[in-house]
Specification:
The structure is a single chain. This protein has 332 residues and is mainly alpha-helical. The protein has helices at 3-26, 34-42, 49-82, 94-108, 114-137, 145-167, 171-182, 190-217, 221-226, 231-253, 259-271, 275-300, 308-329. The radius of gyration is 20 Å and the shape is globular.
Length: 332
């Protein structure tokens, strides 16, 4: 892809993201005009209702961007490592594993803070990833895309049953968990953002560092080894980055699905197979998708709101069907 097209694509994506940010600050149960949004951003005063509303929406918007970016990059990494076009934190069961550990922490260890949620979610995401890859690697042919998808779906179903078994007898836990389970960024705070930000920064840096080696890995293990790539450590670092991004985001936003599926797949169609371009574009695209999903949820549910996870699932289901049909046609 030519540099001029890459620059145009990046600038266009950043422009769309800027419009999504403006929409997130302006639209909702109360409409805020463009001039009022600008005034609220320029001046830190909170004298009018509109200025107060804008300042309340800022952390939600910021978290939507970084959470969407993390999920988009996580999906791109998982699709690259598994060579599976439908690999995604939700489809591979990673989100559900994080959810099980969080709800277990709430039920049995009485965790309450974002920092505690993160560590439980990361542990659940990591163990689930290892388990799914281990199951998918059994038998002839090793970890094929179809076997990984089936292993992830089966694991996700089993873990969802365990989540229900933990929360159903505990009314107080259910009240805490039921809103988190849907997936939402409505409760974002600056404290939560600062808690999760270091994990996301480390994950994004690891993803950028490993992307050239993953490009070589896409040519096949034999070719990658011939090019001097150590396939084992590369997969391990890529998986670490993906799990870190997904687990940390899930801890605060809940198990938001389909962003890691839709965004990287779309970017591959636009940008080609170059992962060094797909990763930053997936970050921007993920931020756009989650932010606009949150805005749509506010508008469609007004005067209340629909959670962002509901909107992404509604948008993602048709995309999954299309990808599955294309994959079947290529005999994947």
């Amino acid at each position: 892809m030519k540099y001029s097209k890459i620059i145009t694509l990046l600038l266009g994506s950043l422009l769309i993201l800027s419009l999504c940010i403006l929409a997130s600050l302006a639209l909702g149960a109360r409409f805020i005009s463009f001039n009022e949004v600008v005034d609220a951003l320029i001046y830190s005063k909170k004298e009018t209702v509109s200025q107060i509303v804008v300042h309340e929406r800022i952390p939600r918007t910021v978290f939507g961007i970084i959470a969407g970016a993390a999920l988009g990059v996580s999906g791109a990494l998982m699709q690259s490592i598994t060579r599976n076009p439908i690999a995604d934190p939700s489809i591979l069961g990673v989100n559900t594993g994080a959810a099980l550990f969080v709800v277990s922490g709430i039920s049995f260890f009485h965790i309450t803070s974002a920092n505690q949620y993160i560590w439980f979610a990361l542990a659940g995401a990591a163990l689930t990833s290892i388990f799914v890859y281990g199951i998918g690697s059994m038998g002839y042919g090793g970890a094929t895309p179809i076997k990984l998808a089936l292993a992830g779906a089966a694991t996700s179903a089993a873990l969802s049953s365990l989540v229900s078994a933990v929360i159903l007898p505990r009314t107080e836990v259910m009240n805490i968990f039921r809103f988190w389970q849907v997936g939402s960024i409505s409760g974002a705070t600056w404290e939560g953002i600062l808690t999760v930000l270091p994990f996301l920064v480390v994950g994004l840096i690891a993803a950028i560092l490993v992307s050239p080696a993953l490009d070589a890995l896409a040519l096949g293990d034999d070719v990658a080894i011939g090019l001097g790539v150590r396939t084992g450590p590369v997969r391990l670092l890529g998986a670490f980055s993906g799990v870190l991004l997904c687990g940390a985001t899930t801890a605060l936003a809940g198990p938001i699905g389909f962003i890691g599926l839709m965004v990287p797949h779309t970017m591959k169609l636009i940008c080609g197979p170059n992962l060094r371009l797909i990763i930053p574009m997936s970050a921007i695209g993920g931020g756009i998708l989650l932010t606009i999903s949150d805005v749509l949820g506010r508008l469609m549910g007004s005067p209340g709101e629909l959670e962002a996870g509901v909107i992404t699932a509604f948008l993602g289901a048709p995309i999954l069907i299309i990808i599955a049909m294309r994959a079947k046609g290529r005999a994947i």
